[in-house]
Amino acid sequence: MLSIKKYAAIDIGSNAVRLLVSNIIEQEGKPTQFKKNSLVRVPIRLGTDVFLSNKISVENTERLIDTMKAFRLLMKSHKVVKYKACATSAMRESLNGRDVVDLVFKKAGIQIDVIEGEEEAAIIAATDLNKYIDPTKTYLYIDVGGGSTEFTIIHEGNPAASKSFKIGTVRLLNDMVQKENWFELEEWIKINVKPYDRIDVIGSGGNINKIFKVSGKTEGKPLSYFYLTSYFNTLQRYSYEERITELNLNQDRADVIIPAMRIYLSSMKWSGAKNIYVPKIGLADGIIKSIYFDTVSSNTQ
User: Fold this and answer.
1) Are 15 and 47 spatial neighbours (Cβ–Cβ below 8 Å)?
2) How many whole angstroms separate alpha carbon 87 and alpha carbon 46?
3) Is the entire prediction scored with pTM above 0.85?
4) What is the Cα Rg of the chain in Å?
5) How far apart are CA 203 and CA 223, in angstroms?
6) For residue 182, what are the CA distances in angstroms to 24, 168, 171, 179?
């Protein structure tokens, strides 16, 4: 017997807001399949508000409400049966975050969960990495966001250590990251990779996905540290405007891609990794999984 349901995940990040609709395919005797059906991304840069003024502006609150109304209509059109909306770094640090969450629920009917960095890291780490990783290898999984970056050590297919750091692309863009933050990250990576002979990196997030697409590599093949360094140097030779007009980057990608590469390159250097794998997964995929497994768990109790 075949069952196909649609679940949705809303990821309210510091750089952008995303709606992922996935098909949940269940067939007797076979493992459940999770297939992406639709992905919509709206670049509401909540992080710029929060990291500079500690509050989400009236303008961006209205934009967020409009976006949530649109997402609600899209979910209705898709016949989504369950959804979950999670807000990360910008929302949890804003002084008026709770007011914004309440206003979104009142005006758009979307309930938002504001999650802590460690929970964010755990949700991301729970994504379906098995088909992307070799269980005999050890990986440093890096999910770069606008306000924070989540790091997970994966050894023999299981998370061995996980931590969230307040180092993100929007925060870096606004010069909001101190040297101490970098030192703390460097120390954490070096301590946690020390027991292992070799580390490969898995990268997720919109910026590394874009870099992978530009590289022309086939899915499953890694990008080398050398390639990333070379592309990083290339990007720096272009102005923000030239990255849009000559390199065909979206305007909300053309500025944050450089600080994102700083995070990936620094992490690869400190871990001694020579390669980075780029599966198309992230927080939204993890949210879909969490909805499914919570449902299965409640049905079996």
Assistant:
1) yes
2) 10
3) yes
4) 19
5) 10
6) 40, 11, 13, 5
